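Notes from the 1:1 (GR / supervisor)

We went over the backlog. Supervisor wanted to see one worked example end to end before approving the batch request, so GR pasted a single chain during the call. The sequence is below; no edits were made to it. Supervisor asked that the structure be written out right there so they could see what the output format looks like.
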Amino acid sequence: MKQTTIEALSSAFEQLQDLIGQLYTAAQVALDNDDFSDASLLQSRADRLYEEAEQLDVIISEMGG
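Structure output shown during the call:
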């Protein structure tokens, strides 16, 4: 793969990590405020993005990034 592709994937991975952190933080705030349905939704979305980020990390590693 071209270096530009690896760089683009790495950048996307880093951005995903930031988004995941924001969602987990928002989920904790919602939980602290007893907004259980919101907390569950936020946690679920963060978990899904985390799984995607893990898969992306594997791809990057396999490409030698």
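Supervisor's comment: The mean pLDDT is 96.
Batch request approved.
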